[in-house]
Amino acid sequence: MFRILEKGLLAPRVNRYVVHAPQVARSWRAGQFVIVRPREDSERIPLTIADGSAETVTLVVQEVGKTTAVMADMQAGERLADLCGPLGVPAKIEKVGGVAVVGGGVGIAPAYPIAQAHKTFGNHVIAILGARTRELLIMEEEMRRASHETVIVTDDGSRGEKGFVTTALQRLLDLGRTIDEVVAVGPAVMMKMVAALTRDAGIPTRVSLNTIMIDGTGMCGGCRVAVGGRTKFVCVDGPEFDGHQVDFDLMMRRQAMYLDHERGTYEDYLETRRCRLDATREPSRR
Ligand code: FAD
Ligand code: NAD
Ligand code: FES
Question: What is the chain's percent helix, strand, coil content, to nearest 5?
Fold first, then answer.
């Protein structure tokens, strides 16, 4: 179980894994996630299910620290130590009319099944995909299939329009396009800015939160956020919430709580990786 059947690079430091996990594959729905322990001695990390088949789930993982780096060093044929799920409440999919599904950076991957589900449900889906540069834009073809219209934006203008996802969303609203609901998945600051824009426009907005998680069972409190002034746990009450009710500033402060420690363990791992690579290159130098 949990054998990596395929692994491929989608963008610098962003890998796609197809993992054999039949039980999860049979029951997951858009918006849900799994908790993965790549190796026996690894920490457990939450990852959204980006796609699936009868026997497999697809994960898209950005290397940002030690555990995602350990996973980046695993290859097809190896087995993940644990993959637990599906966890969390599925995305709310209702017949609303026009839905803008906004994916920022690696957040495009979790946005993909949500766009697919809205399209299948009969909503008109406009996908807005944002990346810093053209090299970092992932899953464009999949998102084109999952939507009726696709708008691409890059921060530097190297692909599509120049600007943030909010630039594109604002332009669509200025054009008077029918957008009855917005779904945003990406960095916290992006979701905060999307929610600020749609609050002014009076458009209901769902966001998928990516807090730090520890146990994923609602017991430890690690993933707590304030939504409408009440404490919620992202692992059991979310990850999707009403974007107009989320206290993003508090969430971002909590995301950065262990930054120094996280940087230290990542740098130590990168050093180990460098030594390993040097050791494999050594014989050819002789
Ligand atoms: P750490 O050492 O934990 O952190 C390294 C750096 O990343 C630090 O700067 C830290 O502040 C930052 N960081 C850590 N966790 C997060 C986070 N949750 N969001 C933003 N920055 C963070 N990532 C994916 O690549 N693909 C996914 O599909 C995906 N789905 C997620 C679904 C949920 C419900 C949640 C809560 C998170 C998801 N994430 C996803 C984020 C992923 O879990 C983290 O990037 C991962 O836990 C980092 O582990 P690490 O040990 O490599 O890095
Ligand atoms: P990034 O920093 O490259 O940003 C991606 C895009 O978001 C930008 O191109 C821009 O269009 C938009 N954006 C960024 N800052 C903005 C701002 N201030 N205002 C408006 N738009 C802005 O993204 P990345 O490095 O790929 O990181 C992706 C993030 O998505 C990570 O934080 C990751 O944890 C998160 N993520 C979340 C989930 C989830 O389920 N919620 C899943 C996977 C990844
Ligand atoms: Fe522990 Fe959510 S991760 S309560």
Answer: 35, 30, 35
